[in-house]
Amino acid sequence: NEAVLDLIPTSVIDQLFKQKPKGGDILKIYHDDTAADGGRWHLCRIDDLLMDYVRDSSSSSTKVVDSRTTGFNKVITARKKLKGSGTTPVAPIINMNQNDGDDDETTSDSWKNNKPVAKTYHIATSGCQMNVADSERLSGVLQNTLSLVELEDGTMADVVILNTCTIRDHAEQKVYDALGPYAARKRKGEALALVVAGCVAQQEGEALLKRVPEVDLVMGPQYVSRLGDLLQDVSRGHQVVATDPTLISEDLSRPVRGHDVRAWVNIIHGCNEHCTYCVVPGVRGVEQSRSMESILAECLELANAGYKEVTLLGQNIDAYGRDMMPKRNFADLLTYLNKRMPQGTIERIRYVTSHPRYFSDRVIDAVANLEKVCECFHMPFQSGDDEVLKGMRRGYTHDSYMTIIRKIKDKAPDASICGDVIVGFPGETDEAFQRTLDLMEKVKFDNLNTFAYSPRPNTEAALWDNQVPEDVKAERLQKVQRLATQHALERSERYAGKVIDILVEDRNPKNIDQVMGRTRQGRQVFFDGNINQLKGKVVDVKIVEARPWSLMGEIQT
């Protein structure tokens, strides 16, 4: 990285790699004796190893593990020629932001000879809000640290990153399909750094390199802030796998936000739950809470930049602070942020996602009483049947979930309640499915994310022999979607004729004369207006038409 390069020439770093040191080793290395200063000795102590350096993909690692279940870090220093083309994969030079005057040092490195310098990048993102936030952080490294320019089309980019999701069925195959055109560029001899990041990368590990040897870097979500260092290895002609569990460091590069009114802010990474259907703990790692101070600092930066809304992100946001000393809780964080946001800056604070097992009455009180925290609860229930919930290892029951809902409706009657549901989980009977429909009738969700169960790699439920037939899953999914749409319309109708505060976010993509904003409860609202005049403002809008997932309105002047 930049700090090291100011002290140690890259040729010395290359010699370190070749000697394959272990943690605790002290190495004495001599720098080029033709240098103007007559050469220098460098005494280097190895405190820890981020990577295990091996010669090729068949070399044994010092960590003998299955990379698809445990993860490990490895750098393959001697890459083989690609089958069918006979070409050796080439990656461009990745220049970290450095002070001028380093040209003599960099031009002497043989691995840089005749290689173009990376100037552009492209990121293709799939999956949840966490992946979107990760891509913003990746862009921050690429733009602010590596001085690359983003391209909308990846066909000509020097660095291509696929930030992947493994939640849905056939996720891995979709990644392999997407890699095809970029792998073809590598086979033609183009200087391209091809990166697979995110959850599929964490899940597949080195197996991905063996299936698509054109890939240069496979990195799990916890290595987002270390992208620059990893790409430095790639530019040396190495192949890198970075999936070993690690502490997540605060980013030095600011994220490049995908929007200029609302922003994502991570508050906790990972998940310690082990629901039997879910891959998240295996691909996102253990829970790691950010400090309140670092979260506040990021929110204040957003406030100073003119943002009006932040959404706090966590796979299990109610677990916030339980890994800290002294322990903190999510309600404390909401209060802390609400109190410290300057007036006239951040208007709204949202969050996702809660877990009914850990949900606290204190969060209901915070949402009901704090001025900037929006009245919206995202409470996945997954199933309405106790036996299915037990099989999922969710840690709550139909009745305990409804107890939470009743408390929300009592203390925050105008709040929206959103959820997630999975149909066709192994062993789900017709009677069990009916209890899911019963719970939906009791709650009447404002918005419900619906999924048919699909077996995921390295999850317990995928191995059970009581799988539900695909046609039954499809039928049940249609039923919950029809009921969810009916309930969404009922919940939208409560706004009809009312004048509501709407934060304007974007132009309506289907009608350029209209703008789109949201209620505090999260419902989209479309109405006539000039986006250049209204974007980022909170305006009064009268609701004239209710639809299941949106509202139509008229601005009040």
Provide mean pLDDT, rounded. Answer: 88
Ranges where pLDDT stays below 50 over 5 or more residues in a row are 60-70, 98-108
Task: Name the helicity range.
Answer: 25-40%
Roughly how many Å apart are the termini?
55 Å
Shape: globular
**Biggest sheet overview:** 8 strands, mixed
Number of strands: 23
Q: Structural class of the secondary structure composition? A: alpha/beta
Number of helices: 17
Strand order of the largest sheet: 3-4-10-9-8-7-5-6
Oligomer: single chain
Radius of gyration: 26 Å
User: How large is the share of residues in beta strands?
Assistant: 15-25%
Question: Could you please describe the fold and organization of this structure?
Answer:
With 557 residues, the chain is an alpha/beta fold. It contains 17 helices and 23 strands. The protein has helices spanning 2-5, 10-19, 103-107, 129-145, 171-187, 199-204, 206-211, 227-235, 280-284, 292-304, 330-340, 361-369, 386-392, 398-411, 430-443, 470-493, 531-534; strands at residues 26-30, 41-45, 52-54, 73-76, 120-125, 149-150, 159-164, 193-198, 217-219, 239-242, 262-266, 268-269, 288-289, 309-313, 348-352, 376-378, 416-423, 447-452, 499-507, 514-518, 524-528, 538-546, 550-555. The strands form six sheets. Strands 3-4-10-9-8-7-5-6 form an eight-stranded mixed sheet, sandwiched between helices. A five-stranded mixed β-barrel has the order 19-20-21-23-22. The chain has a three-stranded parallel sheet with strand order 11-14-15, with helices on both faces. α12 (361-369) runs parallel beside α14 (398-411). The radius of gyration is 26 Å and the shape is globular.
